[in-house]
Amino acid sequence: MKKHFLFTVIAVMILLACNNKPVSKLTLSGLDPVKFQTEVNNIQTALYALKNEAGMEVCITNFGGRIVSIIVPDKNGKMQDVVLGFDNIADYINTPNNFGASIGRYANRINQGRFVLEGDTIQLPQNKNGHCLHGGPKGWQCQVYNAKQIDSSTLELTYFSPDGDENFPGNVTAKVTYQLTNDNAIEIKYKAVTDKKTVINMTNHSFFNLSGNPSNVSTDDILYINANYYTPIDSTSMTTGEIACVNNTPMDFTAPKAIGQDINNNDFIQLKHGNGYDHNWVLNTKGDIHQIAAKLTSLQSGISLEVYTNEPGIQVYTGNFLNGTVTGKKGIVYNQRASVCLETQHYPDSPNKEDWPSVILEPGETYNSECIFKFSVEK
């Protein structure tokens, strides 16, 4: 009896140890895990695979907490990879990009990289048009998260950001949990704590191409956004502070329409400023994660993506600045508008807009953000 008990304990320990290891053979998406093994800042990088009972697979690297591939069936039952990215860690490191990343500390833009907190002016790096974008040039998308694979469908990533990281105040410990459910949904949960008053705004920056072939542009995809208002931007892509109604403008996606229907209408100044859509919408969901925030559908593949979140906003970016200079997985060149990003978040530059939902995190509080990417097929 004691021997049987000991054998059982050893078997469980071996199973748990195996669950904590990254994948060691080619993934369903054709990725070679060996190509994701290196060291960044003396921390090992690797590739992890999540699978569900429906046959879906999601591959993630702990470098930047990035989704590398998402394999889902199309309307003909063929498995398709529906996100842009690279097939090796070197390209993620050496090519400036945000493909699939867990963005932090602050997703999107902060005006002139400057905000005031408790009377002190905080000056952040200015890495995009004079503003701080996605936490600065050394944001969390460029750092290595500590990875723990809980089981075959769950990955837990943890990152410690020290006080003064890109000049943000406070020692912050952040956690990103990816869970793949059996109904083909990727549930992403963000948590963070701090020892000093700070700001935080995390998101996932996956570039979706639901056709399964990034050689195709995504402008024929049908988009729905559950939002009656959006936050206009100036010529530097900075929010002006206004919250504007979408009615009778190209920003109205309350009735589903093709992304390309109005995207080149540069007579509408907002599309000229963004070179297309690169804006935050004010969601009608009011933090209710059970209400759909957005839906994207490829008529070509039949693949649909529904987005749910407890965040007040969603940034929709239509790959306007992809320009054919980046080659991704399978040797495919990423041209303009080859993807759509659906980034759930607080509004851009919220630290400088007192009447917008707060992004301040106090000691003793826990930052909680959730996003669900749910895939299905429409035939």
Notes on the protein architecture:
It is built from 3 helices and 31 strands. The protein has 379 residues and is mostly beta strands. It has a single domain (30-377), classed as Beta-galactosidase, Chain A, domain 5, CATH 2.70.98.10. The strands form 9 sheets. A 9-stranded antiparallel β-sheet has the order 12-13-14-15-31-25-24-19-22, with no helix packed on it. Strands 18-29-26-23-20-21 form a 6-stranded antiparallel β-sheet, with no helix packed on it. Strand 5 and strand 6 (79-81) form a beta hairpin. The protein is globular and about 55 Å long. 47% of the residues are buried. The model is unreliable at 1-19 (pLDDT under 50).
Q: What's the structural blueprint in terms of helices and strands?
A:
Blueprint: H1 2-19, E1 38-40, E2 43-45, E3 47-51, E4 57-61, E5 66-73, E6 79-81, H2 89-94, E7 101-103, E8 109-110, E9 114-117, E10 120-123, E11 132-133, E12 146-151, E13 154-161, E14 172-180, E15 185-194, E16 198-199, E17 203-205, E18 207-208, E19 222-225, E20 229-231, E21 244-245, E22 257-258, H3 269-274, E23 278-282, E24 292-297, E25 303-309, E26 313-317, E27 326-327, E28 333-334, E29 340-345, E30 360-361, E31 367-377
Antiparallel strand pairs: 1-2, 3-4, 4-5, 5-6, 7-17, 8-11, 9-10, 12-13, 13-14, 14-15, 15-31, 16-30, 18-29, 19-22, 19-24, 20-21, 20-23, 23-26, 24-25, 25-31, 26-29, 27-28
